[in-house]
Design a protein that fits this description.
Helix content of chain A: 40-55%
CATH topology of one domain in chain A: Rossmann fold
Number of strands of chain A: 12
Oligomer: homotetramer
Radius of gyration of chain A: 21 Å
Structural class of chain A: alpha/beta
Mean pLDDT of chain A: 94
CATH superfamily of one domain in chain A: NAD(P)-binding Rossmann-like Domain
Largest sheet of chain A: 12 strands, mixed
Strand content of chain A: 5-15%
Number of helices of chain A: 18
Low-confidence stretches of chain A: none
Chain lengths: 458, 458, 458, 458
């Protein structure tokens, strides 16, 4: 830990930045930071300045001499960086609103990770991450890329497989939440006693759990948490997903614990009904988040606020930034912390292609993530997992090449989208609606517009 | 071809039997038959006699001395059999009507192979096929089992993997139809010139095609058949599936040709709409077939009719029996005919488990099916294929053990069923409605009934 | 079969050419040949003319109007070719003599395919086949490459994987011989009744056999042919391998039939002893072949000889050229003949890498080889097969890059070479001895010479 | 760590027991032992008593109240055991002497793990481990089996796959030695700083190493340790293997570090020469060990000796017992120590069968070993690894069934044995020589004796 670090955060104007600041400050003994650069685009400059000043106040309050730089010049920031974290959102929250509202119109789930919305988020994000990598190849060829831009799994797969940036680690906060919840459920509130093994894809993983006496407690946890007669879940589940219980007998039969996002796949009709109700009320997740963020930025403007405000927890996505800071500290110190990250499969999950990106329990060393072997899944998880990976591959190919055919294929196999002619209408409207952010689909969009496809905001 | 053959047909009272008779007669030079036994259950005795007399007339008209035996005593028939063909339907067409109408009530596709209906058909059929195999082990341990009872893929997998009957071959008529259609589309009407390679699962396979000059014509066929401006499909597609066009750009991008049943997966919303419309009119496929069959049996009663009537073609499933006869003749004569059959994977499709049953182009030899190697699928087909196989495994496990949890898992991952709480209602109602045919689920059904679940015929 | 064919034979001055001529003439009804080009290098010009005139006499005697061109200008010949067959030998038979005599000095098997000699033959040959492919890319981009230059498996793998020439088929005569022998052993002399399935690598494959009644006769064949009390083998085994019996109980236990070359692996000490005895007498296989060839060329000079002389059979390698002609005729006519060829694995043998080249029973269609699926091998064959494939990969990498380290690795893992310090001496002497034919190893050889390594002919 | 432990050591009369005692005592804070049972057979009773008294003195000197029981009644010992460690040697050192001397007579390597000697050690040991497991199923169904009887990999595979005892962990001291050596080579003498990842089979594994700054130092270690100009190896390599340097360029090209035992495979001729020289002098490893052990037992008899004597280090196999104690302590305390153990593959090494036993870096938890994923090997290691695994499978099958054919197959594919007719003589003599310890081969041995095969001690 001799070298002084330069950390760069792309999408630095995000409302999450104060959490990131807090996470870094919390690890000040393990992180000898010289410079922290917050980068954003011109459109985000105002937010960048608000949140950047906030971060400076936090650093100062901690009595640290870290330099906090704010810039819209990415190349300036990237020069000689040691770590690049990414938390940007192409098209900002308005794009997410479209991602969620257009599918609702077609009675389909938008869902910003794996639904139709997630596919479009990937279409907008992947070309940008590849641009960033191109800059990094020139400006900081040895830097680590810590991605927590969603859909984190696909963005990480694009970075590693298409961009060729091996030193990429993708992050998600979901496993942190369930690990805590499980410890609580077993009577270890606030401690990290249980041995967890997670495997799958981002927002599509399962886990098994063992107690310190060697007994597997996976089934016991299912009974404690998902028994329909228990109130446990209501009190402990993550905040940014609608609370729907699972079919208890299904989980008992499956024998491994799904993640919070599996509700979209295991209880899709119920989730769709809830989503459509929110849509009717103008309360899609994106709309709610947009209001929360506006309030957060008002708070951040307060020149006396020098700590992460409690309201940020409502934003959802708690622990995301904390996870990023822990990955950085583990790499710098070869700490060998066990974390759940998106990394190269290399046979960890034998049901998936060798060169895929998977989200798995790993030891974080100075040379990156070393995953625990998982092996294969039972049939009740295996096929859907393989389907999701195939969909991710189609989305990435479509995103990189602007390939309309692959986009249709991705929509067709996505289990949250009903295939058929209405699906084509939805896809086409979403393409036109995202016109400004999808240069790779320029010709297709022009053709669709010529054929009369228009985006009608609802 | 020295030994005189004994062929046994379980479900001999089926309306298909005259086609089977015709197929056997057509191959009289390659099949030296001594006895043909038609077996059915007591409830089907009347049909058995009608259709059995019809078969006798056909044999006689051909000037053959084959003995046609009719019996409801399966063990009598199986003794020393060389070939056992299975075409039975547990619960008869009324069960199929329930398979289709109950899901429709829940806005879900019944579909007698892979939808909710297909799952229940598997639940009813698999225990019976395992019973038959138990008899065969004792009575005709060297016989071939030629299965064309649907869902043919799952029934064949159960026979081989659970029943341990290696000498099982599963059959489907769909590839015969598409092979003919493709030859026609390339200008070889009535000929079999093109080289076809099929791979996948029953009712869920794709194919590639080459012309006699070595050029691959798969894309050309997609253009000829599935171009929305072409009328070709309308004139040539199989009769027992609603005619819905595919998304042309999807097929172009996929680069392999789906089977007729892929409509349920690629155009699921359109297919559902059509199915619900039929449901409203009381014209589900099962109801239509029931009427057609009643008419057929009226015809069969005619003591002067000694050839397959043209009306049978309307029944759907043309070529099924013909395929069975060709398999038998190829085995007997080591003919090495190329056919598409359900057989052990053994690595033929590398995306699927080694010990799975797959439906693939094979050479039929005296020792069984020798499949052409296929390898792996492109992403646009791979994931769904893997999902379907995992669903099949869940269905088989549920069917064999009467495992309610596995049944829920199967329903949950099935892409034609929307998961969630309504799904549970549908599953439960279907279990109760099938009470008479699911002894393995006896306890579950009793519990459901106690909880107030009832079947309300619509 | 409308287009008139242009066939090019690289290494046209080979003593095999009359057999090739005979094979083509035999298939005159299926091959509408316009031009047949025999190509050789300057050093082989005299032989080319002798054998070329011989071929012209054969064609004339058959009453055909095919043009037989002789040239040392490869590019002239390749222009617009339809088929390119390769049977060249870099360094001619003197190189093979070195390949066999140097290892003998180190008490090691030379063996022109998989032993140390075979490795050096690959080192000399692979760069040339890649050169030929480079020419073909420009001059005849749609031509088929039919390779029967040894080591045929590695040369084919280099052509397809390194050269990128997908339309390559590798050939071997060994399966033709064993198929005939097996038919004879089962009482079908001169017929092709049995169903054979071969799989493995060139000169390292096994097969299973079924009779026309469907019974597997693999064990029966082992008993008939390899029972130590039987004389069958002595009378029927291929001529160019020393006759050593197998350990009968091993084959019985293995349950699949090895190829003739497995003697080198299953009976390595005995084979080595015999080889060393030949070496002492100056009768290594290469030396014997050299004398036979000299006699053959004397015969070929006879201006009245217009048919393949019987003495050619003594040369060994019977059926090689015939196999090549059959592959060509099958491609031209989409004949779907079953042959054993080297082609892409694609999962045919699940124990080997997907992109490997394997030698397997295939149907030869107009678009190339369609292998029968094989699956996995029993342990007694699996591990050695996987070892051999890894060795082939190392050899190809060494051959392409001139990589000394990979050459050492290949020698180390080769089961016919004892690893250690003597092995290094042997490798080094062979490198120096092959100086003129290994431009890719130029620097390594220079360094070795500087260190005092010399080739001392024995 | 609430429960008081009962530990049972089968082969308790071994000269290693004092090291085991030392290892347990060293971990007294983590191991709350009530009873330690040392079990041996009648023939080993004298040794058991000597070494048992020694262990009691060690325990007493440490001021512990552990009960040390000595018995020849295995069932008495196993009752309610928590851990069973196995370090027995069927046929004692005289059997090992035969294992090494008979092969030498045939100019072949005996080698007590993977050579002909190792195969026979497996033949003698596997039936006994399966017997022990049968007792455990009844007497201590929840106990862990910690095996360090050689050949440890095959014995562990037999215990898990044939015996069905999932809670088995196999141990080897080799990785402990190389991990220490590598740390020393990088300047971390006495520390454990480097991140090691090992994978392969027992006595046939490789490793990669990373420094705490994240840089891979595998190549640097090869340069430091295996450069022929360096003396490092001479000073640090394990003591029980003859010191022969590797071909440096091979290791550089391979890019991963082999284990000490790879000398037998990479430098087989040199190792054979050394072994034969020892054989001539009556100084095979077994003979040397026998003398060392006799001296050790003289020391152990001293009623004042209550600590492990230094001479034990000369015995070879240092750290073996220590490793066993660390595994036990890690399981009891859920310590999650990183160790290299033999455990189920489950896809950890994708080149090997899923259900194989492999030796890999793992975290030792309360529920057993959780291996780090490895993935696939480069060609220079992959094929030999796969070959060795196939050989292990053949050996286990032969050992369990007494299958002579599988024994021949195992000998044939073993790369340390030259195949052929001499091999058959060697195998047959070894079978006869081991007559007293191979009940499963009783019939084969009787037949061989009838045919005149005799064991002639050399």
């Amino acid at each position: 830990m001799s070298k002084k670090l330069k950390i760069v955060t792309i999408g630095g104007g995000s409302s999450y930045t104060p959490e990131l600041a807090e996470g870094l400050i919390l690890r000040q003994d393990r992180l000898d930071i010289k410079e922290w650069w917050l980068v954003d685009i011109d459109a985000g400059k105002e937010k960048l300045e608000i949140v950047g000043e906030m971060a400076r106040r936090q650093v100062k309050a901690a009595g640290l001499d870290w330099e906090v730089h704010l810039t819209t010049d990415r190349t300036l920031a990237l020069k000689d960086a040691d770590f690049v974290t990414t938390q940007f959102r192409v098209g900002q929250l308005d794009a997410r609103i479209r991602d969620e509202r257009i599918p609702s119109k077609y009675h389909s789930l938008g869902q910003e990770t794996n639904g139709a919305g997630g596919i479009f988020k990937a279409f907008r994000t992947i070309p940008v991450i590849l641009d960033i990598i191109n800059d990094m190849k020139e400006l900081c060829p040895d830097a680590w890329l810590i991605n927590f831009t969603n859909p984190a799994g696909m963005v990480t797969e694009a970075a590693i497989k298409v961009g060729g940036w091996k030193k990429t680690i993708g992050l998600c906060n979901v496993p942190i939440g369930s690990t805590r919840m499980n410890n609580t459920a077993m009577g270890y509130d606030g401690q990290d006693v249980l041995f967890h093994k997670y495997a799958g894809l981002n927002h599509f993983h399962w886990h098994r759990v063992w107690d310190k006496d060697g007994s597997e407690v996976t089934n016991k946890l299912i009974e404690t948490i998902y028994n329909p007669e228990s109130d446990f879940l209501k009190d402990h589940e993550v905040k940014n997903i609608m609370l729907v219980g699972y079919n208890y007998e299904q989980l008992k039969s499956l024998g491994i614990i799904p993640c919070a996002y599996h509700r979209y796949y295991y209880m899709s009709e119920d989730m769709l009904e809830g989503t459509l109700a929110d849509y009717e009320k103008g309360e899609t997740r994106a709309e709610v988040v947009k209001r929360t963020e506006a309030e957060l930025f008002e708070l951040y403007k307060d020149p006396h606020l020098d700590y992460k405000p409690e309201q940020l927890a409502l934003r959802g996505g708690a622990h995301y930034s904390d996870a990023a800071c822990e990955v950085i500290a583990s790499i710098v110190n070869d700490s060998r912390t066990v974390m759940v990250v998106s990394t190269q499969n290399n046979g960890t999950i034998t049901d998936l292609p060798y060169d895929s990106i998977v989200e798995v329990s790993s030891v974080i060393t100075a040379h990156g993530a070393e995953p625990f072997n998982w092996g294969s899944f039972p049939a009740g998880a295996r096929g859907q997992l393989q389907l999701m990976k195939s969909m991710e591959e189609l989305v990435i190919e479509a995103a990189v090449k602007g390939d309309y055919g692959k986009a249709i294929e991705a929509f067709t196999v996505n289990p949250l989208i009903n295939s058929g002619s209405h699906m084509m209408d939805m896809l086409n409207e979403m393409l036109v609606a995202n016109k400004d952010y999808l240069p790779q689909f320029k010709e297709t969009i022009a053709k669709l517009e010529q054929e009369g496809v228009t985006y009608i905001p609802q």
